[in-house]
């Protein structure tokens, strides 16, 4: 499997929104672009769009490890200079609409971050009705 730096170099070659949309569209339709493993084109494409529109990629996809094991995987962290806000990004490419579990996981990740950090979840297949309803419920802090 390629490294984060390898994928960063690949995605940097896409220099405008149309190219990124084409990459994401091909990846979603075929489950993977020729050079990208399933889900990676979508994950990195979302971050590249932020970058192209003035967002700062604070952290590309990374894993948080404790001891020998991975405790969480985050698809990216973006800073929006206009909103002066940090966002944890979660990108899920799957055939079915996304259920609430990834949203709940993101909420748990946000609880371990500064209170001003927000979360964004992207799913090309949409979201289930329960996910939409439960996502609107206020988080407990």
Protein described:
The protein is an alpha+beta fold and 141 residues long. It has a single domain, classed as Trna Endonuclease, Chain: A, domain 1 (3-Layer(aba) Sandwich), CATH 3.40.1350.10. Helix content is 38%, strand content 22%. It is built from 5 helices and 6 strands; from the N terminus they run αααβββββαβα. A 4-stranded mixed beta sheet has the order 1-4-5-6, sandwiched between helices. Strands 2-3 form a two-stranded antiparallel sheet. Strand 2 and strand 3 form a beta hairpin. The chain is globular, with a radius of gyration of 15 Å.
Structure summarized in a few sentences:
The protein has 141 residues and is an alpha+beta fold. It is 38% helix and 22% strand.
Spans where pLDDT lies below 50 across 5 or more residues? none
What count of helical segments does DSSP give? Answer: 5
Main beta-sheet strand count, sense and barrel state:
4 strands, mixed
Total strand segments: 6
Number of spatially distinct domains:
1
Q: H/E order of the elements?
A: HHHEEEEEHEH
The CATH architecture term is 3-Layer(aba) Sandwich
What fold name stands as the CATH topology?
Answer: Trna Endonuclease, Chain: A, domain 1
* Content of β-strand: 15-25%
Query: What order do the strands of the largest sheet run in, or round the barrel if closed?
Result: 1-4-5-6
Q: What would you report as the Rg, rounded to the nearest angstrom? A: 15 Å
Q: Any idea what the shape is?
A: globular
Instruction: Name the average pLDDT.
Output: 88
Distance between the first and last residues' Cα: 38 Å
Q: Indicate the percent of residues in helices.
A: 25-40%
Structure class? alpha+beta
- Quickly name the level 1 CATH class: Alpha Beta
